[in-house]
Amino acid sequence: MAAKPFLSNLNDIGINVPKTIRVSDEKDIEKVCEDIGFPLVCKGIIKDAYIANSVAEANSFFQKIREIWHGGKGFVLFQQFVLGETITISGVANKENDIVGRVIMKKLGIDSKGTTWSGMTYYSEEIDELCNKIIKHLRWVGPFELEFIKDINSGKLFLFEINPRLPSWIYLSEIAGCNIPAIIVDLIMENKIMVNSDFKGGIIFSRYSEEIFYTKEEFDNFKKSGKKLIPIFGIGGKKNE
Known about the structure:
The chain has 241 residues and is α+β, with helices and mostly antiparallel strands. It folds into 3 domains: 19-80, Dna Ligase, domain 1; 84-206, D-amino Acid Aminotransferase, Chain A, domain 1 (2-Layer Sandwich), CATH 3.30.470.20; 211-241, no CATH class. 26% of the residues lie in helices and 27% in strands. It is built from 6 helices and 10 strands. The strands form 2 sheets. It has a 6-stranded antiparallel beta sheet. A hairpin with a 5-residue loop joins strand 6 (99-110) and strand 7. It starts with 19 loop residues before the first strand and ends in a 16-residue tail after the last helix.
């Protein structure tokens, strides 16, 4: 029930989900595009999403996604495009389907694949209520991530994905005062949960990449002995002692 093709069933309990149609035959693409309208999102069942603005683009993305993820077969999701900001909530539910820890994060920067590179903790009573409703309905136990888009025109929140895991940005929960991985450990060990269940808003994180430099001699030594590489930092390849 939490998988992408079935999320629209949550409309029955009052959860807004973008209109989604499964397409397995390219002959149906034109009609589906008419039903949903442009722009629309072409999504793989596992991963990948592309915004199409024409039938030709939809056809192209349909073939691309099937080749990459499904061996040229299977179906692709065509989904209503919702313009707005992305807000995600990650947490953990106990065996009674009660949320015992969560953090809400507003995405500030993403890459071309939608991966979060910058975000800010953010409190929303509406998202808390929606999340509790969904977790109870699905009888969820364990970690989760729910992703919403807040429509820029209507202000409505649309649920577009549920992940049965913690996200890559989860260390933000510890910095914001609610260590969700620690809560999971306590639940597994049946310990009393000592971690604060609330979090502080307005904490921003940004990812960055760093290049490491080392000499050929260091690399050859690493290949032979497995010893730790010692990076160089100085001009001209000098080591930083």
